[in-house]
Amino acid sequence: MIALWRLSNSQDLRPRGRPPGRWHGPGAPVVVLDASPAAAVFARLAQAEVAHPRALPRHYFLLEVVAPESAIQDSDAPANWLTDLQATRALGNAWLARGETALLRVPSAAGGLQYLLNAEHPQLAQCQIVSALAYPYLPHLTGLDSAVLDGAGWLVTARPGE
Fold this sequence. Notes:
By secondary structure, the protein is an alpha+beta fold. The chain has one domain. It is built from 2 helices and 7 strands; from the N terminus they run E-E-H-E-E-H-E-E-E. It has helices at residues 37-45, 85-98; strands at 2-8, 30-34, 61-67, 72-74, 103-107, 113-118, 128-134. Strands 2-6-5-4 form a 4-stranded mixed β-sheet. The longest helix is centred in the middle third of the chain and has 14 residues, at 85-98. The relative contact order is 0.23.
């Protein structure tokens, strides 16, 4: 079994809205999972549009999902996967159409790996949520006033020597 992670505003594995993603077109029954809790939080924070950590949504859950390794297929991502959205969507859509596995392992733009879960695959029943941690942000994250610079976002890097 492998442990996968998702930061979500629901405690289930149903896709919401079904917008297109890097690896699938609009309407696809895909839920994206990450290889670690930190990657799941980072993936959501990368999409957050807040001026300060105190404004992070408080209704999210960090889901831990376990799945059998046999339910995972490795993608054969093209060399230009980071820039060719047409190629990556074609790859993901073809995987969905074949219906061979519940999960497709793909590279993540943030580094590492992500897993696409076909929420309509028969193997979905083998993918279980084993924990759901409410408001999973580290407690000290909301107290990072010193990391907020005037006119800048709150996700900033420190200057050398600081």
